[in-house]
Design brief:
The protein contains 12 helices and 7 strands. With 352 residues, the chain is an alpha/beta fold. Among the domains are: 51 residues, no CATH class; 47 residues; 148 residues, Nucleotidyltransferase, domain 5. The strands form 2 sheets. It has a 5-stranded mixed beta sheet. A two-stranded antiparallel sheet has the order 1-7. Helix 5 packs across helix 6 and helix 7 packs parallel to helix 8. This is IS3 family transposase. It holds the Pfam family HTH_32. One of its GO terms (molecular function) is nucleic acid binding.
């Protein structure tokens, strides 16, 4: 059943169309009603056209005058109040014996004048987009960071410098030192480049904003080596997720000495054993369970292909045990650091 308000609207539209030259029958047909229905609605006199938009309403008694409105705008522009919200302006005015309007009225006036936010010298904050890099092979993008290892006494720490390849997750360089200094990072990056035999090849090195990472001498060395530096956003902890995930794996190893290392030599020895395990023994879940070294050298392609054949043969032998397709053993084709969310490719990029 059509409500009276909809009936009134239909009659109004038909009359408007008819007065503009349209045939009454055609106008009724457009609204899926017959001419007789339209005539019955009009004849009964129970159709009232909504005239509320044309009604003349009295001015509210509590409406601000133009002088009061201008006074509000003048007050909020004063240096004393430019950085304050109305919730603080109104009480301050009251302390001086002045009342213009309520806080909500101040807010309404500021909204209408587009002055509610960033008045005075305040600036609108813009959210920075993290630097994004895509690796389709080893030695295209490295990430690095420094983590602290407990020492022989409370408050004493050793620093583990560690460089990680984004595509293969292989640890391409590491050292343990007693302090954080750019000179140690400089030595380590040179050794890693030589060890990987990539002198002169394009490479991106991503890190956070620590002092060794942004030291002028270190950045100068990267420029000399042809390495592009990349940094996390200030005060953002998850822009370097692969290095952070590596350190979590390191500190959750069963043999990690949570009570601290007795000496620098012991810390270096333990780190050496860990890197060997991580690179050559550990089946990395982010690599479809091959080791970082296998992924780094390209051996993983044949390994994953063989696994696929084994699974296909098992399915042929006992098809009743397989409700769906066999496990996906496809190797990674690309790995992204801080992928752009609007590119539609996020699902194809594996997480650390």
């Amino acid at each position: 059943m059509i409500s009276p308000s909809n009936r009134a609207l239909a009659v109004e539209l038909i009359q408007e169309a008819n007065q503009s030259g349209a045939r009454l029958a055609k106008a009724c047909e457009e609204l899926h009603i017959s001419v007789r229905t339209y005539e019955r609605w009009v004849a009964k006199g129970n159709v009232k056209v909504d005239q509320r938009s044309h009604a003349i309403r009295p001015v509210p008694k509590n409406k601000l005058s133009e002088e009061e409105r201008e006074e509000i705008l003048t007050v909020v522009k004063q240096e004393e109040y430019t950085d304050l919200p109305p919730t603080q302006i109104v009480p301050k005015l009251a302390d001086k014996g002045t009342y213009i309007a309520s806080e909500s009225t101040f807010y309404r006036v500021l909204r209408e004048e587009k002055m509610q936010h960033h008045r005075g010298r305040s600036q609108k904050l813009t959210r920075r987009i993290p630097e994004s890099h895509l690796a389709t092979a080893p030695n295209q993008v490295w990430t690095w960071d420094i983590t602290w290892l407990g020492g022989p006494a409370k408050g004493l720490y050793y620093r583990l410098y560690l460089f990680l390849d984004l595509f293969s997750r292989k640890v391409v360089g590491w050292e343990v030192w007693e302090t954080e200094e750019a000179k140690y990072a400089e030595t380590l990056v040179k050794k890693a480049v030589i060890s990987e035999k990539i002198q002169g090849a394009p490479l991106v090195l991503h890190s956070d904003n620590g002092s060794p990472m942004k030291a002028a001498t270190f950045l100068g060395l990267l420029e000399k080596l042809g390495i592009q530096s990349s940094f996390s956003r200030p005060r953002v902890s998850n822009d370097n997720p692969y290095s952070e995930a590596m350190f979590r794996t390191l500190k959750y190893r069963p043999d990690f000495p949570h009570k601290g290392f007795s000496s620098l030599e012991e810390a270096r020895q333990w780190a050496q054993h860990f890197v060997h395990w991580y690179n050559q023994i550990h089946l990395h879940s982010g690599l479809n369970f091959v080791t970082p070294v296998q992924c780094h050298t390209g051996e993983h392609v044949a390994i994953l292909e063989k696994r696929k054949d084994v699974y296909e043969a098992a399915k042929v032998k006992h098809p009743e045990r397989w409700a769906r397709d066999t496990r996906n053993w496809t190797p990674n084709e690309q790995v992204a650091l801080n992928p752009m969310r609007d590119e539609g490719q996020t699902k194809a990029w594996r997480k650390p």
